[in-house]
Amino acid sequence: MRGLDDLDVGGRRVLVRVDFNAPLAAGPEGAIEIADDTRIRAALPTIEELRARGARLVLVSHLDRPEGRRVPGLSLAPIAERLRELLPDARIAFAPDPVGERSRALSEALGDGELVLLENVRFEPGETTNDPELARALAELAELYVNDAFGAAHRSHASTEGVAHLLPSAAGRLLEREVKTLTGILDHPERPLVAIVGGSKVADKIAVIDRFLQVADVVMIGGAMCFPFLCAQGHTVGESLCCEEDVEHARHLLARASDTHSPQPGHARLLVPSDLVIGDRLADDARHRVLDGVEVPAGWMGLDIGSDTAGRYGREIERAGTVFWNGPMGAFEFAPFAAGTRAVAEAVAKAPGLTVVGGGDSASALAHFGLEDAVDHLSTGGGATLELIEGRTLAGVHALEGAGVA
């Protein structure tokens, strides 16, 4: 994969695919504000390095899923304002269209170290279909291309894959670091390698769990996805989230791990909760109680791991040379069901080994508990992280592997 060191950027226009897909919220008097600027800040090292080297930057990003329509509430204009606050010494223009005459005029008027942020590229219907015409229109705005949007690197879109074939291209520092870190924990981790996998559905992460059963030493299951495993073991799960498809997936994974008493890679131990916190509904004022075990009665839902499970998982994390965490242990957004995720987050934050958190809800959980700065690597890509762990080829990365340089 080509990197920034392979590009001569001085005085040249560089189209930089960033991931500014930041969550928005309604502020005072209905103004749209950025709820979390983590992804914007994550792109700054690449942006500042290119500026320092005299590049003229054309930034392109998506925001949410407008499905090829111009949705005023999904404009990148608030992102441009936040970027000006983060880079107060930079001249930053905002193009009201992703491509076209106005965008081309603004890009051609750039001076060294100046930037223009294009409007939401998903306003164009050809973005998600990887339309060659849109890719060519984007390529006309610059002389070089840099992809620094790891969160979108698994998408075969015009701005992530199509344009990379039309310009001398390279990976930005964020994309480079994400790929290196995530492949590193699979290929040559410090051991023991402990994987913590939570979330809602086993089907969404079966390939991730299967991969870690092959390469990790311990795989620990939490969140709603633990209930198909418990059901497959013969336990009652009450009204907990659990479908037959996930139970079948869980049976497959349990069978694969059934002889996993060896600490050697390829024989990972698979751990599931031994106690639970249950509730009658998802709410801060829900009726809830702690189970000394995992038999969920009818009319109740399992909504968090219990303290014994959290302690057992924490002890595995303390001994780990490498920790990978993706998915909360329970419904941490609600106070009665936050303790398990908090305990795991604190254990990961204190772990002596390399700690990698796979973005998405895990990143939200770290932020919720004020621990986002306490881990070694907090990935900016949920879906891209999972696909890379699974061993799948990321379209945006693959396009850079065959890219020319200049």
Shape category: elongated
Low-confidence stretches: none
Helical content class:
25-40%
Radius of gyration: 23 Å
CA-to-CA gap between the ends? 14 Å
CATH superfamily of the largest domain: Phosphoglycerate kinase, N-terminal domain
Strand content: 15-25%
Query: What composes the largest sheet?
Result: 6 strands, parallel
CATH topology description of the largest domain: Rossmann fold
Mean pLDDT: 94
The number of distinct structural domains comes to: 2
Structural class: alpha/beta
Major β-sheet strand ordering: 5-6-4-1-7-8
CATH architecture of the largest domain: 3-Layer(aba) Sandwich
In the CATH hierarchy, what is the class of the largest domain? Answer: Alpha Beta
**Using DSSP, what is the number of strands?**
17
Total of DSSP H or I helical runs spanning 4+ residues: 15
